[in-house]
Amino acid sequence: MHPQLTLKSVRARPIVLPLKRPIVSKVGLFKDWPLILIDLYTNEGVVGHSYLAPYITRSARYIIPAIEDLAEAAMGQPVAPFDAYRRGVGSLHLVGREGISLIAVSGLDMAAWDALAKAADMPLAVFLGGTVGPVPAYNSNGLWLTPTDKLAAEAAALVAEGGFTSLKLRLGREQLADDLAAIAAVREAAGATVKLMCDFNQGLSLGDALVRCHALDDQGLYWFEEPTTYDNIPGYAQLARELKTPVQLGENFYGPRQLYHAVLAGAADYVMPDMMRIGGVSGWLRAAAIASAAGLPMSTHLYPEISAHLMRVTDTAHWLEWQDWADPILSEPFELKDGHLIVPDEPGQGIEWDEKAVGKFAL
């Protein structure tokens, strides 16, 4: 029987990690990758860990105070993620349930679930009723909007990073011919059978998205991800109706209800929530139930370590997005084997900080 945990304190620390391959996309150029490391301390001595990836380094100035305010309000209370999620989201009704508010709730939620699973001496996947093991993954570490003559070598390197047969390629260049050249270059280097998950990063207007996606619809691509602005749900419903290539949506859903509205509208063939926007583990579990009821395959966005646990207990689990951007500060990064990320048989999420590295990259 695991002990009932009570919240003692929370520490949130900003760090910035260098990226081996800079992000070049329609949403911006990123040479570094900021993280907020969260440590949730309990009176019983168990410490839960999580992290947030807020894209913009300066956003830590606003997210960390929100985390600290939510933690202060819960001090001395039981570590009960569903209760904390309901209480945290409920307290945000007057300031909005999106953006920084829900991101802060999500970060605390993930740390709380880690602490509970550790107290039970179980991996999170087992604590949630599943098992540990492999999760099918695609490599999302590169293939940005970089010159097409560099994509072949990069694609070959990405395959070799973990025996991958599936890669993410970014599309939406100025000319259709350049997108076609990018697809051809990656296929030549990675193999004709490689699965190409293609992401436009919301870079096109709806009209341009219709034209470009129709023009690429015979390329045998695995999915079209976010061709246009994520909240244009009627536009996505039109894309999903007209295209034979599946439409992927969801990394920008703030909370399970946004996913539900997209499902009702028929806005996507696949969904891929993001841990810091969907509401952490608690939000994911609620979203997974909606996807299951709708029969929609559900993939992940970022956060491969905790997401892998959740894929092991998700009814319509599809693909894990893998990237190694947090690896430099992890004591033991998860194993990759034959295009799968292996969920370790370790208590909690299985992540611990390499404090020496954390100190090196601290702000």
Description:
- The chain has 363 residues and is an alpha/beta fold.
- It has 2 domains: 7-121 and 357-361, Enolase-like, domain 1 (2-Layer Sandwich); 127-355, Alpha-Beta Barrel (TIM Barrel).
- It is 38% helix and 20% strand.
- The chain contains 13 helices and 12 strands.
- Strands 5-6-7-8-9 form a 5-stranded parallel beta sheet.
- α3 (100-119) crosses α11.
- The N and C termini lie far apart (40 Å).
Write a compact overview of the structure shown:
The protein has 13 helices and 12 strands.
What secondary-structure arrangement, pairings included, does this model have?
Blueprint (H helix, E strand, L loop, with lengths): L6 E19 L2 E15 L4 E6 L7 H15 L6 H10 L9 H20 L4 H4 L6 E6 L11 H10 L5 E5 L5 H15 L4 E5 L6 H10 L7 E3 L7 H10 L4 E3 L6 H10 L4 E2 L3 H4 L1 H15 L9 H8 L8 E3 L13 E2 L2 E3 L12 H7 L2
Whole-number mean pLDDT: 96
CATH topology of the largest domain: TIM Barrel
Record the strand order, biggest sheet: 5-6-7-8-9
What is the distance, rounded to the nearest whole angstrom, between the alpha carbons of the first and last residues?
A: 40 Å
- Report the uncertain regions: none
Tally of strands: 12
Compute the gyration radius: what is it? 20 Å
Strand percentage lies at 15-25%
Which structural class matches the secondary elements?
Answer: alpha/beta
Query: What is the architecture of the largest domain at the second tier of CATH?
Result: Alpha-Beta Barrel
- Look at the structure and name the CATH superfamily of the largest domain: Enolase-like C-terminal domain
Largest sheet, strands/sense/barrel: 5 strands, parallel
CATH class of the largest domain: Alpha Beta
Using the alpha-carbon principal axes, give the shape.
Answer: globular
